[in-house]
Amino acid sequence: MSTSDDIWILGIRMTKFGKHPDRDVVDLASEAVLGALADGGVTMKDIGVIAAGNLMNATAGIGQQLQKQVGQTGVPVYNVANACATGATALRTAIMAVKSGEVDMGLAVGVEKLSGAGLLGGGGVAKADGDTWEPSGRFGAVASTDGRIGTNTMPGVFAQIGMEYGHRYGGTTFELFARISEKNHAHSTLNPLAAYQKQFTLEEIMGDMMISYPNTRPMCSANCDGAAAAVVTNGATLARLSGEQQRRAIKVSASVLTTDPYEEACQVLPNVNTLTRNAARIAYEQAGIGPTDLDLVELHDCFATAELVHYDNLMLCDEGGAVDFFESGAPWRDGTTPVNVSGGLQSKGHPISATGIANVWEVCHHLRGEAGDRQIEGAKVGLAHVIGLGSACGVHVLERSAA
Amino acid sequence: MSQTATSARVPLVEYLVIDDGDPYLVANECTSCGARFFDRRNACASCSGTEFTRVRVASEGELRTFTIVSFAAPGIPVPFVAGVVDCDGTSVRGNVVNTDPDPDHVRVGMPVRLTTFPIGTDRDGTEAIAFGFEPADHHTSTSTDAGSE
Ligand SMILES: [Zn+2]
């Protein structure tokens, strides 16, 4: 076994992603939490701390609402919100509590109800223009700037991020980005928990409704409902548990959260590159592995244009080599570095706060050899990445138990 | 904020200067490290310095990236081209205007220049002026009062 202060995922579960009109966020969170506890062979009485993430209703205290349904043990709850990195932030919070030695076991949960939420980023800021021009806000704007000075919509922001990569290194086309989406939709057909398990032809993807060039509708993450939860513990505690629990436990070799350091332009167009590269570099150092050791990667493909830049940011390819990396077939499930074999956010779905734990679940599922039809054979080590605009980036490196 | 009773104009944002000859953009430049910002500052995000000077931003630049937005919040006319322009080392967010919003007419790396246009008049008769970037090899004039959209 490993050293006593190593961190392990003991139990983990995600709900089916999709439309759950008859269930509220507490129902979904409860399913994930009870599932994760059962998966780990423990109960709420074993949990010393809870970190709970829910973005759309961040002031509602989802952690305490959850406790009132599944177990009020009086342990501290940290309700966290960090945009699309909320789930990873919850996981990281539970890990830090265990790592600090204050508790032996922690629970992280992320949940979101997002079906029918429509376009994110644009709606919340639109306000009616006033009767008279009055400067307001930090730009002294007399009217809404969304659509007049660039775009606030997520598909538009991430489209520019992909196009900028193409400007810097060349080789990007509408068709290339569409083919990334084609891959993820093809992968999703093997994932029964994905919101959409529909294969698309390249023609269908390129011919679908344009949202923000070059991202058409199937190239955008799917708004849906879902939850995911994980139980984490330390090596000393795991050593006292059963052989079966030790065999199925997944080692957290790295747990990293970063924000974006100042660079020119980062307050003009979000820079999702530097903080991801920083997180990856720290994670590889912590884990003592390199990108070529990874058997699978779940990365934050909120849009097809985003997946491309993260091949580079996570150093899965040489700097500037993301297009060649994709063209080589590497990120397909039978390639050298399978990326988003779950179907990714474009087809599995993106219930924001659940995403950062669900992608860890996907990796764990393969490392345990329990991924069924979509199992990546012999997977020993994987990486899960999320990014939330604002920005926050979470990277977790996971390894199969040696036990 | 000098205002006359008739034909008063206000910029859409404070960093657009319209009452000093040809319109231009200004930035708050950190006096210690040179980082430039367009918003009201508490301190510098790069060095935490608190002294800023107002500097004029180059009005010509290169389109570094763009998207063509076909789907936006209610009330925002689509399609439009949103992008980032490298104005001699200072990145500026803005729309690409006065050209067809399609990938045949807009490309990364194209030279563009600042232009302004009215976006409406309030009940006091004051006109709000917005800015965008147009292709620098565009055949129309650079008139700061385009008159129509
Ligand atoms: Zn500074």
Description of the structure:
The complex is a heterodimer of chains A (403) and B (149). Chain A has 403 residues and is an alpha/beta fold. Chain A has a single domain (7-116, 222-400), classed as Peroxisomal Thiolase, Chain A, domain 1. Helices cover 34% and strands 17% of the residues of chain A. Chain A has a nine-stranded mixed β-sheet with strand order 3-2-4-7-1-8-11-10-9, with helices on both faces. A two-stranded antiparallel ribbon of chain A has the order 5-6. In chain A, α1 crosses α2 and α5 crosses α10 (304-313). The model of chain A is unreliable at 123-128 (pLDDT under 50). Chain B is mainly β and 149 residues long. Chain B is 0% helix and 44% strand. Chain B has no helices and ten strands. Chain B has strands at residues 9-11, 16-17, 24-30, 36-37, 52-57, 60-69, 80-87, 90-96, 111-121, 127-135. In chain B, the strands form two sheets. Chain B has a six-stranded mixed β-sheet with strand order 1-10-9-6-7-8, with no helix packed on it. Chain B is globular and about 40 Å long. Mean pLDDT of chain B is 90; it is low at 1-5 and 139-149. The interface between A and B is large, with 49 and 52 residues. Bound molecules: zinc ion. The site of zinc ion has 8 residues of chain B, from loops.
